[in-house]
Design brief:
By secondary structure, this protein is mainly β. The chain contains two helices and 16 strands.
Length: 252
């Protein structure tokens, strides 16, 4: 009986000292805005580094943020780049002592081919909330979806011989921010290309040109049957930001 009482007292003490501690986590696309509901959110996992226990997990939600505030306003040490609607995940941790945690973000959650994992580590003190801008992790890359040709499409050689073979891709920033000619994310400042491989060997490459918002296309010549792979990439020479998508198709 005495042991049971001691055990219950220890449990009571543990719960008595545990304090609810809130942390705001945000995912920001490299050279762009925040990842929120419009892109399906970024997935956040907070773990205790000692035993790898998950303390909180969930997706960011909210808007991509205020474009002028994030991309145009001068940045001072104490200035904020978020507003009340900016996408975030608000985690609530119940900890009873200073805890060293890892914060991991997978984003974009709904676009696996572009998904990147970023993480950081920090101490969290019971009852000491981290709010406001919170913890901001940067997600590098572009989201690229090859639209033409289709994955594993079978194409008759006689239907394309002597004709330009169209390659088309949709390219956006990792927050879903649009790429336009002359826009904040200016298509003219990005290098966008398609690389063509045949039967595992490099064949040729071509530039992709902006057509309309987020849409790029180009053409390439093909004159033989085989197993083909197209690799489309976007590259920003100023920031080093890079994104890639690949598909395979068959010419018979």
């Amino acid at each position: 009986m005495k042991k049971i009482i001691i055990f219950l007292l220890s449990l009571f003490c543990a719960f008595s000292y545990a304090k609810e501690t809130k942390i705001t986590i945000r995912a920001r696309a490299k050279d762009a805005k925040f990842i929120g509901s419009s892109l399906g959110g970024a997935y956040v996992i907070i773990r205790n580094k000692i035993n790898n226990t998950i303390l909180a997990e969930g997706k960011t939600s909210g808007s991509t943020g205020n474009t002028d505030l994030i991309m145009k306003a001068p940045k001072l040490r104490d200035s904020s780049i978020v507003d009340d609607a900016t996408g975030k995940f608000l985690a609530t941790l119940n900890i009873d002592e200073p805890t060293f945690v890892s914060i991991e973000i997978l984003s974009p959650f709904n676009h696996k081919q572009a998904q990147a994992k970023v993480s950081t580590e920090l101490w969290v003190i019971p009852g000491k909330d981290i709010l406001g801008d919170g913890i901001i992790l940067e997600i590098p890359g572009f989201i690229i979806d090859i639209l033409k040709p289709r994955t594993h499409q079978y194409i008759a050689l006689n239907s394309i011989t002597g004709k330009p073979f169209q390659i088309q891709a949709n390219i956006v920033m990792m927050c879903g921010c649009v790429i336009d000619k002359g826009g904040i994310w200016d298509s003219d400042k990005f290098e966008t290309k398609a690389i063509l491989n045949k039967d595992g060997k490099f064949l040729s490459e071509t530039n992709l040109s902006w057509v309309s918002t987020n849409l790029f296309d180009g053409s390439i010549a093909m004159s033989a049957p085989g197993n083909y792979e197209i690799v489309v990439y976007a590259f920003d020479p100023k920031t080093g930001n890079t994104g890639v998508d690949k598909i395979n198709y068959v010419v018979y």
